[in-house]
Amino acid sequence: MATRLMFENSCEVGVFSKLTNAYCLVAIGGSENFYSAFEAELGGLIPVVKVSIDGTRIIGRLCAGNKNGLLVPHTTTDQGKSLFYFLVIFHF
């Protein structure tokens, strides 16, 4: 079944979220409906986590990941990395 989502009037859902085979990252600051849609579909299967990378909400374009880890920009601070405590983080 398909679910239609928008993030603050943008249909570019992949810019504001990152879905892998082990976790789902959702941008902080979006509507609760945006987060709830991911939680409803994936909540029992994989963790759905609200995050930001370098203070931005375009997390889908700033990272790449899978069950083995997450690649984030080298400018990501230790405070930002603390949000990803359950992942192995590599810098690019």
TrEMBL record:
GO terms for molecular function: ribosome binding; translation initiation factor activity. The gene is LOC111024937. It comes from the Eukaryota. The keyword S-adenosyl-L-methionine does not apply. SMART domains: eIF6. InterPro entries: eIF6. Pfam families: eIF-6. The keyword Nucleotidyltransferase does not apply. This is Eukaryotic translation initiation factor 6-2-like. Keywords: Initiation factor, Protein biosynthesis. GO terms for biological process: cytosolic ribosome assembly.
